[in-house]
Design goal:
The protein has 151 residues and is of the alpha+beta class. The protein has 3 helices and 9 strands; from the N terminus they run H-E-E-E-E-H-E-E-H-E-E-E.
Length: 151
């Protein structure tokens, strides 16, 4: 424990938005048939509203997201974590706004379009976002509910 006082909502919102904009990788948790429960690190592009990730369609994560849109994302270490519950929508390159696939490749250092394996993009729309550093921040950890930022 650091002993630091809990952050106010405004500070947590600012810190969380900065993290979403600055980080490149996150953990993606999916479940369901046929892939079963699965946890994998993926790179992402955040546009201020949705996350864009890409994974092979045939992977456990790809199969799970195609079968069940529910997804949980995690960023940061355990003592400064952001947890996102959201829904994933599959989207093909043609369904992305112009320049988005190139922005994804530039941001993440990986271009799924250049892979011999068939990759699927997924737009993940956050429904709930929580952030906390220590136990003293568990109260007030909700920053987004039902897709709407608090505060």
């Amino acid at each position: 424990m650091t002993g630091a006082p809990p952050r106010a909502l405004e500070e947590r919102l600012r810190d969380t938005r900065a993290r979403l904009e600055s980080e490149i990788d996150l953990w993606v948790a999916t479940s369901g048939s046929p892939g079963g429960v699965h946890l994998v690190p993926l790179s992402y592009l955040w546009d201020g509203d949705v996350f864009l990730v890409s994974t092979p369609r045939a992977s456990a994560t790809g199969r799970n997201l195609l079968a069940d849109a529910r997804v949980r994302l995690s960023l940061g270490p355990t003592r400064d974590v952001v947890i996102v519950d959201g829904t994933a929508e599959p989207v093909d390159v043609a369904g992305l706004a112009p320049g988005t696939a190139d922005a994804f490749a530039a941001r993440t250092g990986f271009d799924p379009q250049e892979s011999a394996e068939r990759y699927q993009y997924f737009r993940i729309r956050p429904q709930r976002i929580q952030a906390w550093r220590e136990a003293n921040e568990l109260r007030g950890r909700d920053l987004m509910r039902d897709g709407d930022w608090l505060g």
